[in-house]
Structures are given as C-alpha cells and as structure tokens.
Design a protein that fits this description.
This protein is mainly beta. It has helices at 45-51, 151-156, and strands at residues 7-17, 24-28, 34-37, 59-64, 78-82, 102-106, 111-119, 123-127, 137-148. A hairpin with a 4-residue loop joins strand 6 (102-106) and strand 7.
C-alpha cells in the first residue's frame, strides 16, 4: 500500500542539521518508531510531501529547507524580559535562569517556550523561535509499514496505537 491521505504510516528515521553528515537532532528507531496519520496537518507539510507514494520497506532521504521546516529565525521573537518577572513562586530559580536553559514564560497575554540566550542583573534575553528555526534539515529513514486508517482514526484525526491506546 502506498502512503496517501488517511493511511497510518510507521517509520524509523534520523534527522540532522544541514545534510547527511550534520549534527544529529532527532531519531526514531525500529524499537520506538514514529507513527502518524498521514494528511492531518500534524506533520510538516513538506515532510509528508516527500513521503507520499512510498511503500512498506522503502528507504527515503531528503533535505528539508528551513523555509519548509520551521522557517527563518524571527528577530522579533528574541525578547529582553525584566528579571523581576521571573519569580520563585512561579518555579524560577537561579538554576532555571541560566544561559542555554529552556523555559516556559507566561504572562497575562500568552504562554511561550524559549531558550535563554543572555542574562544580566536586570534582564533575561529569551529566544522564542523554534530551536530548529533557520536550519535546513536532512531526513533519512525507512518506511516500516503503511496501512489504511480506521474510521475511528479518521474521525479523531489521529492513529490508534497497536495496544489500543487512543490519542486525543
């Protein structure tokens, strides 16, 4: 069966920055494969486009340009936040406010995840871009299986794990 809309795809993969020899950023092996319902918009569209038409046991390798992955880095998403907005009551400590740490920042308007890129006595500079923004990605892997989605999976817009666990 070929991968197309309303099929459940199971695959293993490695994803690297830039090209086949770049830094490994994620992988999913045979023991813990990636499984998803194709065509629901939960995966990157260009990623799905590269898999469309592939079949069981077929290998794949492709580059995903930054514009089709997580986009270009947006400088407006790098913000300096007054350090007094990070209180211990909200769970922030000296250790959680170190450069390189990932944090979740909430205020009255929104909740965002970001990476601390600088810190002074008065401000914490946080990059709220996706960690892979601005990066070309290279995917390489194997299609483990492809099957027709059940009515329930199509209705829920999510696959059901083989052990019967249902996802929302």
């Amino acid at each position: 069966m070929e991968i197309h809309e309303n099929t459940v795809v199971t695959l293993s993969y490695h994803v690297r920055k830039k090209d086949e020899t770049g830094e490994l950023v994620d992988f999913s092996g045979q023991s813990y494969p990636l499984r998803f319902l194709f065509g629901t918009g939960k995966m990157l569209p260009y990623f799905e486009e590269q898999l469309k038409g592939k079949t069981h046991n077929e290998q794949f390798a492709f580059r995903l340009p930054a514009d089709f992955a997580y986009g270009k880095k947006d400088e407006s998403l790098i913000k300096s936040i007054p350090i007094e907005e990070f209180t211990e009551k909200e769970g922030y400590t000296k250790e959680t406010l170190e450069v390189g740490a990932f944090i979740r920042f909430e205020n009255a308007d929104e909740s965002q995840s970001g990476k601390i890129i600088d810190k002074s006595r008065k401000f914490v500079k946080v990059d709220f871009n996706h960690p892979l923004a601005g990066q070309d990605l290279f995917f390489k892997g194997n299609i483990i299986s492809v099957r027709k989605a059940s009515f329930e999976e199509i209705e829920r817009q999510h696959h059901i794990e083989p052990d019967g666990i249902r996802f929302q």
